[in-house]
Write a structure and sequence with these properties.
Layout: H1 3-17, H2 24-35, H3 40-50, H4 54-63, E1 75-80, H5 83-87, H6 90-101, E2 114-119, E3 131-133, E4 136-138, H7 143-154
Parallel strand pairs: 1-2
Antiparallel strand pairs: 1-3, 3-4
Length: about 160
């Protein structure tokens, strides 16, 4: 899409915030909700519309871990690497996920099916090692289901 097409796509979202102050974060949330991430072209349009330097807009967006600048997978797989999970096998689980998915932590598969992430702690230490798939917590005994599900989704 060219910049004009981005302006057209974003205009309904931008209209909701026209003339309001303190709208950067909710506006970015809505744009990400629409596209799944914050495309560079959308950031340009937003910066122009809000009369903000592009660097400042990126500064706000990059401060919050909820915002992404690259497309994300349909399924997000998060591996806890906190102390309890690490001790109970998280590194091996992460290595197997990287092998199964063909990507490294922090990457998305080329078909946009999976994004693999690590997190420092999920607060489920008693269930360690923990993997979260699309907000579904999988403890160690559920990992066999995970491998089968990944293979099924890859088809």
């Amino acid at each position: 899409m060219n910049l004009r097409e981005w302006e057209q796509r974003l205009s309904p979202i931008l209209a909701r915030y026209a003339g309001k102050k303190g709208v950067v974060v909710p506006l970015l949330q809505d744009v990400q909700g629409e596209f799944g991430y914050l495309p560079a072209e959308a950031m340009q349009v937003i910066a122009t519309e809000l009369r903000l330097p592009l660097a400042r807009l990126y500064g706000v967006a990059s401060f919050y871990s909820q915002f992404y600048f690259q497309p994300r997978g349909k399924h997000v797989v998060r591996v806890c690497t906190g102390t309890a999970c690490h001790i109970r096998g998280a590194p091996a689980i992460l290595a197997r996920l990287e092998e199964e998915l063909g990507i490294r932590a922090g990457e998305t598969t080329p078909d946009l099916a999976f994004t693999l992430e690590t997190v420092n702690c999920l607060g489920c230490c008693a269930l360690a090692p923990v993997v979260v798939v699309d907000d579904r917590v999988l403890r160690k005994r559920d990992h066999k289901k995970l491998w089968g599900w990944i293979r099924e989704e890859r088809r």
